[in-house]
Write a structure and sequence with these properties.
The protein has helices spanning about 20-50, 50-80, 95-120, 130-150, 165-195, 200-230, 235-245, 280-285, and strands at about 250-260, 265-275, 290-300. It is mostly helical and about 300 residues long. It has two domains: about 5-230, Up-down Bundle (Alpha-lytic protease prodomain-like); about 235-300, 2-Layer Sandwich (Alpha-Beta Plaits), CATH 3.30.70.
Length: about 300
Amino acid sequence: MHSHSTAPWQHTHAFLGDSHDHHARRTWLVVLLTAVMMVGEIVGGSIFGSMALVADGWHMSTHASALAIAGFAYLFARRHVDDPRFSLGTGKFGDLAAFTSAIILAMIAVFVGYESILRLLHPVVIRFDEAIFIAGLGLGVNLVSAWLLRDDHRHEHSEHSHHHHDHNLKAAYVHVLADAVTSILAIAGLLAARSFGWVWIDPVVALVGMGVILSWALGLVRTSGAALLDKVPDQHLVSEIRKRIEIDGDKVSDLHLWRLGPGHLAVIVAIVSDAPQGPSAYKERLGEIEGLSHVTIEVHRCEAASNPLPA
């Protein structure tokens, strides 16, 4: 028996996004920035006796934790990119981290809503100048963080550009954006309360912020959860694959399309034909479709004509 190398027919299972390392560096920079701000608020509040400052510091700790999850997901995905235990690579670690971050964000939103209702029922004295200063400082940090986490990787030439979205980066971005929106609404509410004596407007504005953040969190749960559950990412692409395969009497009997990571899709196609060709011929038909990183073709000869079913 001759031993043949399979190397020419093997391919990589590294399904990380094109900007994986770039996004990882920016995420860790934001983690550091948020952690420094968090420690500064907690220590400063403790020294100067400001419970508002301490509370905001602990609030930032939840965002810092969620951002750290995103950072570790990038690190783990890169470190284990060639680990054979992950049969289809580590591209989905970002989706898993995004799903986790979305749950944390939803919990933060619910907690903000709970605290706001308590403030409506039991108003407290607000130290406006200090509170506005804290909110402004937090807003500045969040705007810088949002700028660092913006997804500036463009796909102008991609017909299916949404397949390139990095859910992990988006989750981190939404966290800092949610905090920024909270700070903006807090500043507006505090200014109104100080100017017109509307103490009730501060918790009401916070409830509005809760609704916005909760809707963003649920959106992240849907998109990242869909990727984790291998939901078909694009029905139009499924139709395009069928169109390219089903020529000259070839028929698709089974088709599975799912996301492996940012910018990477996998497809399994089972084909039935009276005159079947080799799998490589069908792969060539799909060669111009961008993002198909793992293509598996199964070919069957149609036996219906030679073995008709009994009457």
